[in-house]
Amino acid sequence: MLSSLLNQYALATKHIPLLNPEPYDTIMSGKAVKLYTISNGQIAAQITNYGGFVVALFTPDKNGEYVNIVTNYPDIHKYPTANIGMVGPSLGRYANRIANGQFTIGDQEYNTTKNNGPHTLHGGTQGFDHMVWDVKKANKKELVLKCVLNDGADGFPGTLTTTLTYSITKDNGLSISYKATTDKTTVVNLSNHTYFNLDGDGDIMNHLLTVNADSITETDRSGIPSGKFIKVDGTLYDFRKPVVIGDRTASFPKGFRFGQKIEIPKDKVMSYDNNFCVSHKSKTAPEKVASLYSTESGRLMEVWNNHPGLQIYTGARKAIALESQMYPDSPNHANFPSTILKPGQTYRHTCIYKFSVMKQ
Fold first, then answer.
1. Which of the residues are catalytic?
2. Which residues of the chain fall short of a pLDDT of 70?
3. Rounded to an integer, what distance in angstroms lies between the CA atom of residue 175 and that of residue 157?
4. Backbone φ, ψ for residue 101 (5° rounding)
5. Cα 173–176–181 angle (5° rounding)?
6. In angstroms, rounded to a whole number, what is the distance separating the alpha carbons of residues 181 and 193?
7. For 59, how many CA atoms within 13 A lie in the half-sphere containing its CB?
8. Tens digits of per-residue pLDDT, 13-46?
9. Model pTM?
10. Cβ 324 vs Cβ 309: under 8 Å
11. What's the CA gap between 91 and 313, in Å, rounded?
């Protein structure tokens, strides 16, 4: 029914108001960087081959109006210099954190770049988000990118060759699919860090979040897992039924800002930055693991993936990241799903953000 509603409203929509690609076109590391558009006529995504950033995503609201529902910067030059919040890039070779920048494979210890205090975050300083990807294919509905991370880059072993495919699905989804191989045993956890606001602006406190997860990984204050799991039942992390994000999040009388110190009520959180252990029946096929809905715009986004984790980050409350991933710091926890990739094996990961419109 939701899909038919989207089709009904899309028929009456105006032309999709795409971003001007010129501010995103340049030369970096001797390679051309451009803004590519993929669309099925009902939704459209604009992606740059620098870092694989999702710069824009246009979907109709309940009135058939289009706005960009992802956070972006106004030109390409902001991405390598101002992107502290990881606004929209592909993540690798290891998304999320590695404790103390250390892990072992067999008897060999590896030390990785520490770029998050004493820890490694999102692959270090030479990860996917800093690469100019080679464009292997670009048409109206699909963009295929490729990059090679050298053996030893940021301390990780193995030459990692990755193909990243963005495509628009028939049921109005943005599909992000990774395929990677290595010439030496390594660890791999690839993801995407797009921020969503289904209203286009304002905050996401009115959004309803649903997550098909019975537990989260317990972490310390720096986001490093203890190796234990916390059942969500009866906690502020139980999103198995739709919850208005603002109902669980502390209010700031003078407006939210990072570093502000107030007393957080026991029945609230300041923000979410947690790995949810999502439930799957299939071992390979993407399944629905979460949804996000705005009562204001009527936009509904479903998250489908084939990985065991979903990092939910509400940051500054203006948008939300739902990062499909393996668990953080998995190389240092034998009880977590393995992130080891060996020569001859192929790493595969698909996440699909599906869009529809739902009237109240």
1. 193, 323
2. 1-14, 83-84, 254, 259, 360
3. 29
4. 60, 35
5. 155
6. 22
7. 30
8. 458 999 999 999 999 999 999 999 999 999 999 9
9. 0.94
10. yes
11. 15
